[in-house]
Amino acid sequence: MRDISKHKPSRWLRVSLSLVVAVLAVVVSAGAKGQVCNVKVVTDANPDYCDIGSFIYSATSNWQTPEEKCRALFYWNHTARRQTQPMTLHGMELADPIMQFNDYGYTMCSTISGMNCAIWGAMGYGVKFWDITLHTVPEVEYGGRYHMYDNSMSAIYTLCDGKTIAGVVDIGAEGACEKSGGKVEPAHVARWHCLNATSPNGFLTGADDIRSLAEEARCFKTSALKYRYYYNSWDLGHRYILNLREGEAYTRYYHRLDAPKNDTSTKTEGAGKFTSDPAYYVPNPPGPEGKDPEAVNPRYRLRGNGLRVFMPVLSAGYLERSVYSMSGVKAASDGLTPARARQPGEVVFAVEGANVITNVKIKAVFFRKTGGDVTSVAISTSNGIKWQEVWTNTGLGETPVELNLTNEVNGAYIVLVRVILMGAGYAADATLKSISFETVTALNSKTQPMLRLGKNTVFVGAGEKTESIILWPELQADRYKDLIVEEHNVASDKAHSGWHGVLYPAKSKEDGWVVYRIDAPADITRLTYGGRFYNRAPGSHADLLYSTDGGKTWAKSWSLTDTTPPWDTINYEKVEMPKGCGSVLVKYLINSGDVNETGHGASIYAVRMEADYRPADPQFTALGITFTWRERQDDYTTVERRHWQLVRRAELPYVYVINVGGVDDPIVESLSVYAMPKHLTDWADMKRSGYSDGKDVGGEKFVGRWETEGTNFALGRPYTVSVPTETNWGAGDPENKVLTDGVVGPTYVGGNSYKYGAIWSNPKEPVITVDLGETRSCGAFRIQVGGYPWWDATAGEVKDKVEVLTSTDGREYKSAGFVNFRLRWKDIPVNYLWPQDERNCGYNFPLVLEKPVEARYVQFRLTPARIMSVSEVQALDFIRYEPFDLKVALPDGKDRSDITAYLPKHTESRPYSAGR
C-alpha cells in the first residue's frame, strides 16, 4: 500500500484542510445530521458538465440556430479535451462525453468523433461517423445537409461561399475558386477554406502539432472516405453525482497533486522525466500494465485531483445518518460495539468520489481485548456484490490503523467499507472507537467551474433528494460473470471489436440473458437502466426487463426489434419503483434470430444501471463554497486570492458574484464544497462571506472578441531583406518570396516549422521592406514570429522586438509602432483556436492602429533576442475586433439529469457510395 502523505499540499491546500479539520472537529463534538444531494456548483465562464442534458442546455440554449449551437459545442469541445492516447475503459475507447469531460479528457480522433455523435444525437440531430485516410471525423445533420466538425484536429471548413459548413464529401471533392487562383485540385475546400487555420493553404492553429492544410487535404482523399453507416462509436449514461453528508468536504484541485516540486515535465521544451503516483490517476488501460495517461503528453496538463474528507459520527442518535447500513451493532460511550456478545455485527460506510476515485485512505482506532475478539475491515466496489478483506486486527488493546488503498479502489465512484465487530466474551471487547476517510479523485482540469477576469456569476444548487447506486459492469472476456446473479445462453468476446457488441447469445435463435441485482439501504424510488445495443439479423431483438419480487415476475420496459442500420443503439428506461422496494433485479435479454456465420445477430456493447434511493436524512444546514485562484499581474507574476461563500439550505438555488482582478484571466487553483454543520454556521466568523483580502475589485462580465481581418495588401508583393536569412533547420528564402506568399507558418515551433520561412539570430537586425505596389490605406500589420528558445508570448517570455515603419515614397519612413509580443489570454480572439498545449510560441502578432496610415512601402525592423523565425509579413486595410459573448446559460432550476429525455433518435442509414 502506498503512502500518499509524502506529497506536500500547496498553501491553499493547507488552508482548505485546516478548515476541514475545524469542520470535522465541530461535527464530532456536536454530531452531524442530514445530507445534501446532487450538489451543483457552476459558473457562467464555462458549461455545466453534470449530465448530458445540463451540458447541452448550458452550452447551446442561448443560441438560436442549429449551426450556432454546433459552433458553440465545437468551441467547448476544443477546450474540454486533448489529442492524445485515448482513455480506454472496459476494453473500449471512452466515448461517454460526460465521463470524459469530468474525469479524463484523453481522446483521439475516433473517440471525440463518437463523443460528438453522442452529443448531437442527444440534441435530436442525425449523425454520421466516417473513417478517412488515417483519421476519423463525424458529421451532423441540420438545414437539409450534413456538416463536419473535426474536434480532433480542431478544424471546420466552409464551402467556397465562406459560410456553409462543409460536409466530408464536400471537403474531399475537386474544386476551384479565386483563393486557389482558379486551379482545380482535389480537396480544394480542405486547402483553402478552413476557418481554424493560420491562413488559406496554411496550418491548423488548434491542433496537437504542426498540421498543414495540405496534409489535411490528403486525409480527405475521395477514394479513402468510408462512411461507417452501421456504427456511431458513441456512448451515454454517466452523470456527475455529488452528495455530501454534513461535515463532509470535497476540494477539486485544477492541477495534479502528485507533481514533484519544480517539476518541468509539463513544459514542452526541456522536459524532464515524468513522474507520478498511482494513487492519483486511473491507469490507461486499467491494470498493472497501465500508464498514467498524463505521462504520454504532460504538456497538456489535463489531470487534476480532488480530495474528499469524511469523518462519520459514531454517537447514538447520529450513527444512522453517518453509515450506509448496519446490523448487530450499537453506539456506546466510547465508540461502536456489537449489540450482543459472541454475535458479529457489521457497519458499512459509503465512500463517494463524484469524480473517479484513485485512492482511499482509511484512518481508524479499534479496541480488541482478547485473541478471540474480531475487528476487521473489508471493501467493495460493486455495491456489496463482492467484498475484499483489507485488514484484520491481530493486536490487543487500542490499535490505530492506517490503510492506503489504491489498486483495491482505483476506477470506482463509490466504495463501500465494511467493519466487522465481535466480542468473544463481552460485546465491548471489540470496539470501533473512530474512523475517517480521505479520498483522492482524478478529474479533468479543463472542465471544472472556471473564473474569468472581471465579474463571474456562480450558481449553487441541490437536486433531487436521493442517493444513487451505480452498476457499470465490464462485459468482455467473461468479466460479465463478476457481478451477475444469473445467466443463461450467453458468451462474451475476449475483446471489443468495435463494429458489434461483446456480449451475445451462445446459441442462435434462443434467448440469452444476464441478471443483475441492486440492493439499497433504503427504499428505491427509481430505476434507470439500459446501455448500448447491436441488433441486425432477421428476428433478432434485445429486451430490458426488471423485477421487484425476486424474479417471480418480470416487467418488460423496452424491446429493440429494429434491424435497420446503424446497428449501434443507445437506450435507457426510467421506472418508478413501488413503495417499500429495497431490491431490484435487472435482466438484459438478447436473441440473435437468424444470425449468419459472419457476426452477431444481437449483442450488447455496454450496460449501465442506476438505482436512486431515499437518504437517511435529506435535510442539511448550509454549504460553504470556496474558490481559490491566482490573479495575473502586469509583470506576469501572480497574486493568490480566494472567496468564501456560505449558502444556507433555504436559499437554494443560490446565485452570487465573484469579481476577479489582475490584468488577465486568472489561474484557478481549486473549488471546495463543504456541507456545514449547524453549530459551525452559527459562528460569527462563518456567517461572513467574502474575499481573503477583504477587497471586492468589481468589474464587468468578461466578453470575448471576434476577429475579422480585411485585405492583405502585401500578399504576393515583392520585398527586400537587409540581412540574408540563415538556413538552419531547412529555413531559407533564396527568391525573396516566402514572406509574402500568403502561407502563415505553424503555431508550433521546432521540428520542421523553420522551413516555412526565414530565420535570423542575435545580434543581426534585419529590415524587411515590402513594396505594396501603390499607396494603400493600412489600418493593421502582422508578422508571424517563432524561434528558439521556444518562448511563450502568453507567459511574457518573448524578448524580440519588431518595429513597423511606413513610407509613401520609399525614402522617408515614419514609425507606426512596435508589435506587441506581450500576449494576454483575454485578448486572444474566440475564433482563434489556441494550440492544445496552451502555449503561443508561433503566433501571427498584430499591430492594429488607432487610425489608418497611407503607405506604399512597409518596413519590419527586427531586433532578435534569440534565433528568430518569420514566416509571413502582412499589411492590411483593417483588423476589426467585435464583442463576442459565448452565452453560457446558468441553470434555470430545472432538472435535466434524466438520460431518457436525451436518447439519440434512430435514423435509417444506407451505405455510402460516390454517386450519392
Which labels suit this protein?
916 residues, mainly beta, C8orf32 fold, Jelly Rolls, nine-stranded antiparallel sheet, 11% helix, 37% strand, disordered N terminus
CATH class of the domain at 706-884: Mainly Beta
Helix content: 10-25%
Apparent shape? globular
The amount of beta strand, in percent, is: 35-45%
The helix/strand class is mainly beta
Mean pLDDT: 93
How far apart are the termini?
60 Å
Task: Characterize this entry briefly.
The chain is mainly β. Among the domains are: 176 residues, Roll (C8orf32 fold), CATH 3.10.620; 135 residues, Sandwich (Jelly Rolls), CATH 2.60.120; 148 residues, PAW domain (Jelly Rolls); 179 residues, Galactose-binding domain-like (Jelly Rolls), CATH 2.60.120.260. It contains twelve helices and 49 strands.
Structure explained in plain terms:
The structure is a single chain. Among the domains are: 52-227, C8orf32 fold (Roll), CATH 3.10.620; 309-443, Jelly Rolls, CATH 2.60.120; 467-614, PAW domain (Jelly Rolls); 706-884, Jelly Rolls, CATH 2.60.120.260. The chain is built from 12 helices and 49 strands. The strands form 13 sheets. A 9-stranded antiparallel β-sheet has the order 21-18-23-13-12-39-36-37-40, sandwiched between helices. A hairpin with a 7-residue loop joins β31 (541-547) and β32.
